[in-house]
Fold each of these.
Amino acid sequence: MTPERWQEIKGALNGALELNPGERAAFLDRACANDASLRQEVEVLLASDQDVGAAFLNECQDFKLIFESTTDSTSSAKLLEPSGAWIGQRVGPYKIVQQIGIGGMGEVYRAFRADDTYRKEVALKVVRGGEDSRFVVNRFKNERQILASLDHPNIARLHDGGATEDGVPYFVMELIDGVPIDEYCDRHKLAVNERLKLFLQICSAVLYAHQRLIIHRDIKPSNILVTSDGTPKLLDFGIAKILDSEAVTGQFEPTLTVLRLLTPGYASPEQIKGETITTASDVYSLGIVLYELLTGRHPYRRQNSTPQEITHAACEIEPEKPSTAVRRVKTTEGHCNSQGSSAVPHAGDSPERQSRRLRGDLDNVVLMALRKEPQRRYASVEQFAEDIRRHLESLPVFARPDTFSYRTSKFMMRHTAAVLAAIVVTVTVMAGLAVTLHEARIARVQQARAEQRFNDVRELANSLMFDVHDSIQDLPGSTPARKILVDRALRYLDSLARDAASDESLQHELGTAYEKVGTVQGNPFGANLGDTQGALESYRKALAIRQSLLHSNPSDIDSEVAVARTQRLIAAIIGNRGDPASISQTKQALASAEQAFHSAPSNPAVLEELQASYYLLAILLDGAGDYQAAAGYLHEELPIAEARLRAAPEDRVLRRELGRAEVKLGYALARMGSRKEGLDYSHRGVEVLESLAADGTDAESRRWLGMAHWMLGDILLLNDDATGALRSYQEELRIVAPLAAADPTNAVLQYDLGCAHARVGNALAILGNQKSGVVMFNRAVYMFEAQLARDPAYTEPRYGLAASHIWMGEAFTRTGNTAQALQSYERGLAGSEQLALHSEGTSTQAVCAGLRAKIGFLQAKMGKRDQASEEYQHALSIAESIASANPNILEAQYSLADAYSGLGELSQMQALYLSQPIEQQIRYWSEARSYFQHSLDVWQRIHNPGARTPVGFACGDPKFVAREIAQSDAALTKLQSSKSSGSSVPR
């Protein structure tokens, strides 16, 4: 069938459906006067509509509505007729005993394994008799492939699959002995909170599928069965969409043009209209299910509704609020649950009480999921579930009512260019209002009016920054518009600040506004625009305002905490830019937090800021290489985290803070040499974070779980367990990749993703898979370079870039590719030296020393002994300077030991020239022994040396150095003996 032919059929069909059945024949006489086959096609489709319409109305059977069909005009009677022909037959090792489900393309049977291997009941699905077109078979196989890729406790699992002796494909699933979720909730009279918790498990299953690029497209109560123990299971991926084209097992027949399968009562508007299907479609269907669970009624379906009326309402009519709908539910209304009975949710409550329970947050959450435009719904199932979780924990939700700002965002999506221009004009008008306000205040006769205007403009400023901005921040491509808002709002706030010096409450608002603007511009701990310089300026303006407020009221704890927080944010920004002043700045923030703690030791905000300051200081000292000092501050932080959690044991954020604190402390201890203790802390932290990330809705806990696996992998690598490290790094990559894909403008997540690739590449190369390792290194290099192109002041990617080149050099060294290794080391050295320019006496400079030792080793292999000696001596001078100033910089100790060892090997090579005089040989062997002894002395200063340096680079081995000392001693003894006996050269 061609697209043109289908348009003719669809036009005639739509016209006929608009008429009463008695008027359709006359209409078809006119519309199909000269085309008998056209009339036949339309009449078949009209007959299907009459036969299966009832099933569509009550949704109590598992059928799919085919809006656009093919030339295979199977009658609707055949579509609905269950064959049951398989009962009693064996399919593979399974014997079929009972039919338990039937759909448009497949039949589901209860079966059991009958080959005496073991006894197990299963659900077996086969293609329906007569429905064996290539399209149906491919769709069936795709469903089987989808189930094979899904392993989640709330998704029915695939056990087996194959084809019968007649070539009919089948697959075997877990048998779910349960009832639809709406029926289960009603039968057990679950309260609202219990229904929400049950619903969250389904969100977790859908999110799991989305993360594997699978959209279900048919979520409804009958496809969600709840077992007797209260576990919900998501079923029927028969019309699921695989976004990864490589995962599709077959291609559909090209003649099956635009086939759309859907359930009208639960399909999203874009499904109905045939537009692009995304994960937002499943969000919509979940919203319908939640609406029914909370209200006992469908948002669009009414008694005797036709499929056309339902789909029209879904596309054009806004649903009423659940709190309003629940008051309308009556047992006579005709709403059908899975058993066909009327459903009144959480029975026992009066409609008024139910309405009060749903009013507000739950109204907003459900209606946000049901918005007509996909981009105005929750951006993901994860966000949807997060709002439900926040509601259950009595936290503010992100969903808002359909107010002016939401209507504004809808207009913005349609008229982006015009809106951007309008924003500029709006801000210009606001600036004019500010000037007008200033002039009005000068004139006493207009003072009252000026004050009113001031308040109006103040309210408008807050709306612009926090309503309009927030309404567009999730729109694709909205970053330029957000940047314009930030720039213009900053100018306006600066003007407003000059006029409000005496208004203390406004000063508090301005301080908060500048801090939020800085967070949008370059917050180092979350999504930002990558403008670190702009963020620094905004934070400094906030700090000046808050310090002024604290000076006016020194006993104000809130102002003390605000000052400490802003000082810490500034320290974090300059720390990410590589400025060593960040440590002293953080110590100022810590002093402010400690002062507040002395005044109010039990104040939650004070404890939160004190813990954050300890943590940031530990991070900066750790980055400088002083792991002992970092561990000291982490030891200070840990009891605060434990105390905060004891005060609020159900607080997920505090549990995450405790897990993060344990992981970081374990990491610092391991790098100091206490690897067993470090592993214990790290494993405890990982367990806490895994419990938080288990439901799949807590993005921050998932990010921290990824970081915990990174640190655990580093500890295992220090223990020379590259296999275990690779598993941890791969787990980190598995967690970080979907987070970064969901938020491509988040600089922090993109950096995390690059580091995860580099670490996996390093472990692969260590284990001998150099080719795959280099591929991962190159991906990481590309990501870091892209970040630096966007924000050259953001230094974190420079560290990742340098590390990637160094690890690549180590990989080439292992395989003997000296030229490539030397090139990689030189690139790593150039990047590290640039980072070390403003970080005197830190591990970054020690890394430079270690790199020069590595380059010296390669030059010695190439026979360039003079150049090698220069590199080793240069490495010594850098490492000795750092080690003497701060012996706690362990990276410098490792570099020092390797440089001495390298010089020893050079002298050893010289000593092995047997043609030289024996005195010369003795001198070189003595020199080699001296260098090796210096190296061993350094190794003995390191507590429990690791297999790699603390920052993860290859290093020497004290056992090797001890053997070389023994070899030098043996050679010297032999030479001395030869010299005494008068021999010229020992043999």
Amino acid sequence: MLDLPNYQLITPSALIKEDLHGARAKCLQRLVRLDLTVPETVSLSVPFVRTISAAKHIDLGPLLTNFSSLPILSVRSSPINSEWGGPSTVLNIGMNKEAEGWCSDILGQEAAKKIHLTFIKSFACDVMRLDDDIFNIPELTPETALKVYEQEMEEEFPSSIEIQLLEVLRSMSREWQGTSARLLRASKGAPEDAGLGLVVQRMVFGIGKAESGAGVIQFIESDTGEKKEVGRYLPQSQGRNLLVGNEMAMFLTKDARGRSLEESQPKIFTKLRMAGEVCFKGLRDEMQIEFTLEGGKLFIIDAVSTPRSARASVEIVTRLAEKMIITKEEAVLRIEPKAVAQLLHKQVVEGAVGEVIARGIAASPGATFGKLVFSSIAAQAAASQGESCILVRRETSPEDIRGMHAASGVLTERGGNTSHAAVIARGLGLPCVSGVTNIEIDTKLKCFVLDNGRVFSEGDVVTLDGTSGEILVGELPLTPAGVGESFDKLMGWADTFRDIQVRANADTPQDVLLAKSFVAEGIGLCRTEHMFFEEERLTVLREAIFADNNVDRNAALERLLPMQREDFFEIFNIMGELPVCLRLFDPPLHEFLPSSRSGIQQMAEAMNLTAKEVQERIESLSEFNPMLGMRGVRLGITVPEIYDMQARAIFEAASEVRKHSGIKIVPEIMIPLVSAKQEVSLVKTRMDAVALEVSKEVGHEVEFKLGIMVETPRAALRAGDIAEYVTFLSFGTNDMTQMTYGLSRDDSGRFMSAYVAQKVFPEDPFHALDQTGVGELLSIACERGRGASPNLVLSVCGEHGGDPESISFCRNLGMDYVSCSPYRVPIARLAAAHIAINNKKLENI
């Protein structure tokens, strides 16, 4: 086993390891290897830094022999992962009266005093944690500052560099281990025992007689990824902190607004450009370089990956791959699947500060702002005036669909990741925050009240962040959605690597067009009841549900048939030879019964009844637990005319497409909420009969594939029996999770955060598939189904189909495809590519 030193000088051959010395130390070694001019730097290992905070005394003399006899140093943090942050840099360690005199000879007396004074204040406030107000003295000098320090600390300011350096190292180590730092890096995914290394570097003075200064340069626009030199340079300065908001800071490139480094120091600017190109090729990334000029000589102090948006990240990796600096596989792996959501939706600008008034479940990603409205009618009115609005409801229903179409975002008091509002919003690409438990909505007064009593009324403007689940006061700046040629290129590469198909959940021809634009390989779930959310259609559907005799019901179904046929024709026509899976009618009746006064009145007019008669009929149809009541296959068996109508509409539409385009359509028909094989047998018998009738009418055989949506635990357990009647099983993991846990997917948001925080559940099971419980049922169903029918097609069509970890689990079970909402299709495609590439790597080890 290697005996690794506690610290060592960074040289091209030094044994610097990222997991031992941190990301910054390793990056500095790479800069040295690239022959860039980096000041002498010593790397302190993670174990040594941990020791420093606890040890009473450590001899730093041997460490200092790596520098000159009178060194002035800086210390920077070097966490294992650069994204975890770390303590701020401390400059000019070693300054004392003797060092000030030495600096005076080289830099000038004024510069030397400035450096000395800056260090005294930095050491006092940042290291010893004194209040910076003690230095608010007119014409403060180093001598005065030392006296102020001695009065406050009741001891002399340490003049020894060993003591100064030890106190700095100790302070930074303890800050890293503090509660605030732990919480901050934990929010970025760092483990509890995350390690911190430190680097000690010879100071390069950006202050002096000849051209001196400090700056930062990057070579792309952070928002777009466009190639461009961006940054600032400040003459006679040290470090990057002084660059922010300083009017004296120069531009880097020629600019009509003021002086530039390119004009004043063209040779230096050319060297910086060359350094950027060297880093791009050698470090295989776009880097942001911190540099210092000392007496006209350029030093590279540090380099980090350039801050970037998701859009810029895609531009960078595709550029690297096309220049063959990285492989296409690596380009794909560098883009996190969840980051794709930032490309498809507007987001709150990073760093924008707003007052958070409420939090809920981040049910549909993206951000928007607009005035609050409390009804669909108000949302439509706002949209007609060109105003952005946020629709606020306790929970949404089909009556709210038109309002959701008109709104810019949706906020609900109830519901979770798989509630009506969440599912519809994801399909529409609308930001949605659901399950906001600290508000109380009053639809009559058109307002909501926070738990602290604060009131927000209709017309008030808020920003809704569906990515974080936050509601903020006022209008925050948003980044635009942005996909383009580079994104399409990257996704094309991803598609060549993945080995599981990705389909989309799409319910209308408009949804299907969107799904196809995201390169879905078919429709994995078309919820046919969602085709009736338009007001005219909803009324006819309600007539069919309300009918208490066959004559009235058949009359309503005859009106529904051409509507369904038209939609199916358009969907088949759009998708062409790609598969389309249509789920038969599955309405939890409470979602389709009118609840508002206007809805009841409209229903009464349509059916020539009184409002009271309609209300009585609603009450007679109401159920104690409608999600487990008369829905799905139960409705299809007890009222078989509904499924007969749908089957005929499907077969006639497929025949019409074949007639017009010559494409043979073989629809996939899915039966919902099955729990017994006899249910499938009964539905299949009627399907076959309708298919035979239509075949005779159109003059050719009508073909179709029959499958079930596995949502009940019993269907999973009896998959072997059911497989006898079907060609595919598609797992509806939303309801499967609900039934397995005994959780209401609409109400669990009220306590789920507490459950996750206390580690009752590792994650919200409606957000990430429960692989040990629900997953075991899926595993059993796959094994038993394929055991009875080896060619059985298996898939997931719940919202888990867009979750990367869930996709990996489904792939390992041998499923053929996953299906998710259209806006999650690119995420699923990229995640599937990651899984395939990483598995291939493991196989080759």
Amino acid sequence: MQRMRLEGLTRAEAQARLLQYGENRLERKGRPPALRVFAGQFRDAMVLILLAATVVSALLGEISEAFTIAAIVLLNAFIGFLQELRTEKTLEALARLAAPAAHVRREGREEWIDAAQVVPDDLLLVEAGDRVAADGVILECAAFSCDEAMLTGESLPEPKHAATGEETQDAEAHAAMAFMGTNAVSGRALVRVTATGMATQMGAIAGMLGEISEEPTPLQQRLDQVGRTIGALCLGVCAAVALAGILRGEEPLAMLLTGISLAVAAVPEGLPAIVTVSLALAVRRILKQNALVKRLHAVETLGCTTVICSDKTGTLTENRMTVKVLFAAGRVIEAERIRDHADRESVRKLLLCAACCNDAKFVGRRTGLFSRRTPQVEGEPTEAALLRCAAEHGAAGEGFLRRAERPFDSARKRMSVVGEMPEGARLVFVKGAPELVLSLCTREEAAAGVRPLSRERRAALQRQSDAFAAEALRVLGFAYKPDDGRDPEEGLIFLGFAGLVDPPRKEAFAAITACRRAGIRPVMITGDHEITATAIAQQLGILHGEGRVLTGRELDAMSDEALEEAAGRAAVFARVTPGHKLRIVQALQARGEIVAMTGDGVNDAPALKQAHIGVAMGKTGTDVTREAAQIILLDDNFATLVAAVGEGRAVYRNIRRFLRYLLSCNTGEVLTMFIGMLLGMPAVLTPIQLLLVNLVTDGLPAIALGLEPSDRSEMLRPPRSPQESIFSGGLYGRIAFRGSLIALAALWIFTAALRGGGTLETARTAALVTLVLTQLFHALECRSETKSLFSINPFGNPWLLLACAGSAACVAAAVWLPLLQPLFGTQALSRGLLRSSVFVSALAPVCSAVVSAASGFLRPMRRPDASAQPLGE
């Protein structure tokens, strides 16, 4: 029974329990029904006013006009519905990708499964940094403790012990249990699941947790405020247009509808929705580059990043550790020569210590045509490299029975185990940071046997460790002693060092160069030795010039004010703890930096949460860091983060693009009607025509501008300030100027058509075509803030071309299809008038390009790559 229990469930048993108990999920409020999402499109005040106008028109007998207005409103609502539905599906897909996993033992084999597939009686293997997937009783554990603040409110971790079956009090039973959603802080445990889903302690309180809605991003709030301000101004102008028409003797109902339609066209009520869609699409693009963005607002913050604090191992390096050199009994032994010395007692003991004081293990995997079991090492890269090296030289520690252990943690920087060898000897093995291991030793394993460790010899050994570190090696110290029943980590016998190499990623150097050109300062934060970190930082180009290296010991001696000053020049922080990382982030933020911080360990979570952008590792990161982070690097690659920063900048630029486009078009429509009334003209456009313009020009082209691909110049500009106005760089002036050109073009054609003997319907049709074409030309123009329409690659954004073609086709149908002409009050245009409309529409971007060129002569323009010089050069 005991043996079966420790082997775990069979797959058939697990499947049967899954059917019986259901998935291991907490009940949560699902996505609102599609009908409710569609109905939500009609909550906007302007839409309600327009629907009211539809009812008034129908009551007055204007059935065709009422029907057309209602059809356009419904089409607008349908477009908004599709946008919102697609965004929701994107977010749901991302949530599934970010779902936690569980490490279980089934049929005697260990595997990772989706946490939702965990069932009662499953065996969970939980280690420091993991999130417990379900409630369960602890069968075995070593130095295991859990953060249960979310359940108990206690800030300190709760120590745990294995269940004995004799617990009689609630407190005793609680200490022998692990609970769903809590985080393992230290040690490891084997847990038998007793409850899943809503039957867990977390499920019991789930009903008391309200639905947490994501607050609007700062950018959305600013845009919403902009929309309201502009909307209020436009409403005033629209009311003035309607009043002026009524005072001139126009039909009150027609002018009322004109004013309402103009208000709907002028108020940019769709801005927040388009921002959300653009951010969601940017998230999908970033996901294709192996970075998972958990929260939409992280995308816009990425574009402001000024400092990226990155771990070294696995992020800047390949995390492919191999043993390069050993030092034992006073000899330096290169990796390829270890076999020649493996029979030496000092070398054998060092390799045995590396294998026994190690949590990596061999696992059999079937490979090849005949499915042969090939042993592979599974575990943390450094420990896996040590185990492979020991096994290759016949010192894998077979038969060693571990009786006690003190796991490695970032504060102690060492690991120790106590166990029995096959021949019965009981030994203590210790590995860890060289200086710490040396400080625990009183003797040394020499070629002639064990001898006392003098102060001079200790200093010489430390120099040897530093020499290895200067070669960019990760150095570990090893020690042992016979178990004497006293503190296992006192009175040790020093065995030697192992130097491991983790080569820098090939793409990391290019990514760091891109950072410096973009005005972003890369900073390395690592627990490795100062010398090792310095060597790697110099190879990658992080450390040069006046860059400074600080150690954890120096940080401990600094006040917060001193650290704030030093952080401005520091390029490398070595031998730091997770607590130091939090102080570093806070010091950089105090200097006004926008900080992105990477991490993988459980204790990195506070620093990740403190940073503006917390970045967790997808491969080596723990559940805790992945939950605290806003971005997860699926490939643990620094270059991926830099690429995501580029996408963050691009999405902000795209938001400016469609904001410029929408507001210019709305300004042009309002000015067209307002100036026409002031000049005593008839209403230039009817309400239906205004709504048609709003439909075909505001929707698809604006969204297509949000799909504009990022260009290389994005990473040649300095980071923008988060306080920077969305209208910075003269955007207000461009909007006003281009809106005026749109209005002048429409009024010019309207006047020319009337003077040429055309009817009012013909003049309005010509103005309608000109207004739409001018806006579509402007959409193409908005692709760049620094180039004119005639210097942009016309095929750079095929989606925008399709959107403009679709909008033009809609207007052409309204003008030339006899079925739609009565609805929109249009007439087919003659070839001469059509050519004039196209000519006047195309003239607007020419005027815009001429004015931009002239302004460039009058004032020096800053080049986009003005900040492209690498920092410190």
Amino acid sequence: MRPTFSNKLNALAHWCSRQKRKAACGLALVPAALGAILLWPMDASYYLRVSASGEMQDCSGRLLYAFLNPDEQWSFARELSEVSPRLISATIAAEDQRFFRHRGVDLVACIRAVWQNLKHRRVISGASTLTMQVVKRGDRTPRSLVGKVCQAVQAIRLELRADKKSILRAYLNRAPYGLNLVGCEAAARRFFGKPSAELTLAEAALIAGLPKSPTACAPLSHPEAALRRRNYVLRRMLDERFVSPEEFRRALAEPLRAGWRPFPSLAPHLAMLLKPDIVGQGKVRTTLLPSVQTTAEHLVRESLDRTHAEIGNAAALVIDAPSASILARVGAADFSDTSRSGQVDVCRSPRSPGSALKPFTYALAMERGCLYAGERLLDSSLDYGLYDPENFDRRYRGLVSASYALRRSLNIPAIAVLERVGYANVHSFLRDLGFTTLDQSPERYGLGLTLGNCEVKLEELAAAYCMLANLGEHRPLQILSEAPADAPRRCLSRGVCLKLYEMLEQPLPAELGGGDAQPVNTLTRVAWKTGTSTGHHDAWAFVFNRHYVVGVWMGNSDGAPSDKLVGAEAALPLAAKLFRALPPKSDPDWPEAGSDLYEASVCALSGLPATAYCPRTTRASFPRNQFLNRRCDMHYPARSGLSAVAQSSGIIERWPATARGWNLARISAAIVPNAGKNDTSGVRTQAFRILCPPDKAEYVLTGERNGDRIHLRASLDEQMPLHWYADEVYLGTSTPQSPIQFDLTAGTHKVTCMTPDGLVDQAVCSVALPKGPRDRPTDRQRTFP
């Protein structure tokens, strides 16, 4: 039977009811499905991280050198605090005015875009937010409706997991700005040669407008389009009240000013040395000071221009002496000059140092009591058979002081000093200072070691001079500002280094007068030393005081010699200019002697501590820890049978026969001059020795209060003040009214006593703990007020 109309209507109603229930169920599932999508786990850091270029920074975090990122792009990650606020405002005004009010999708912008696109029947505007663009850079979604929907969903999910500042930072660091520039910092440096934090309003507007169309609005290839886009961004900033009308007019009137600017490329040799760390860590902060580094590179190139191609290369180091931090490092004159091996880092290349090693020979000799700064040495011909050394200028100056010999860099006296202290000891001392290139046996270098018949690195030699500047404390040179500094290690006593300051101090040649040079008395005091390698292959100069150390090497990359390669003529002028260009400091530039030096009487002829027979004496200073047991051996009383002249004077002088083994001193520890009131002869002798503690004495600790203490006494207590040392530590000065007491502790102790004239005696004593454990004194019992 055919269905009636009412049956059909009922069937239709029933069908509609079923569809309605299905639709209701479907609509009910939409929020649940949407909630599940939004709350599904998401790695927000994937969209926020930046594939940045490796950066080498200076001590304050400014860019010095950079490397391309793994995608062969320039990208410098910056925090919002490091970006100009004008650039942030321009970006928001141009790309997403309601960025801080929406949650990833701007509904107002969506409605506007739909209406405008329908009205014009083509796409004329979009509704992408900054968050959606960050997502787009991470997902590379297609440019379609489905792609936009996916971006919107991911943008909402990202906003649920990251704050607005992190998203804005990610956009500014990941947005494309044309060419291979990613991020606003790379664009600012490429087009304006400055950090993004220093952009003007007009420059910030130009940069902010580039991500919309990086190619079509490229300022280098399409300046007119770039200018129109910049002006549009400025109007948007005015509309959004980010700028005042007056600021808008001034910025609008500015020319484009964009150009191709190179990225910073200071200290390229250091950058190549640190490249593994830079690429691995992203950023490495150094101790370099950009103003000093720029000055150093400029002066190095300028100095080579004046040599008329006879000297092809140079390297320089500038060190802050107190911290041993490297402020400037020039590995070669021109990194890009492959014809002269410009990419070779000469700061780390072994070169012959010439006389630049002499100060360390003299220092060790004084430290070991083999030399006094004022004693006379003989500068004369010296013959060792197959080895016949001579001075640089092939002249001899006769009797000279050790200070003069070092200051004038005389070879013969330096060899005599080396022979006196032992080349094996000097070799060991230099190795202890960090000279890694001295890897041969001491016999391989022999007496030529002090003249530089070896190879050293500029870095290591500069560190050794920094030790002198720091009065004997050695620190490894610091190049990474965030690296922990090693504790200083004492290599020389303060007194010896103070004497070296005196021995090496002299005006820089350019400052001796004339021309437009600054008067010497207005300049900081300096000490300096030069070096010239055998055959004129290398020229060196080191200038230092308590503030800075400057080290310079000059030569040719291929090792070619040149008569111009003389330390005082080639390297010293560059080192002097570089030193005088350094920023001044307020603290003293020269060390105070304090109690580290003391005065004693010396023979006016030999410069050695005087005896009763020296006819003329003067006063000289000595390091506090230097025993004056080497005394003048030139003068002695005349005897009958000698010439009338000798008998009339009463004193005879005696001299060594040759310069080899030259030594005007004798070791004396038993006789001192003593002019008593009733002494008619004028000279009386008396034995000088330590009375308490007796040599090889043995003590046992008692643990009683003040019971483990002895009074130090010597045979001359009643006649003069005496200086006392225990285990090389200065205890003080004893007088008849103020004796010195020594607190005993378990172990072996060496007690030393020295007179003001330099006589020395030593005694060794041993102190034991009681054998019974019950009788063993405690630390409290062994501590005295």
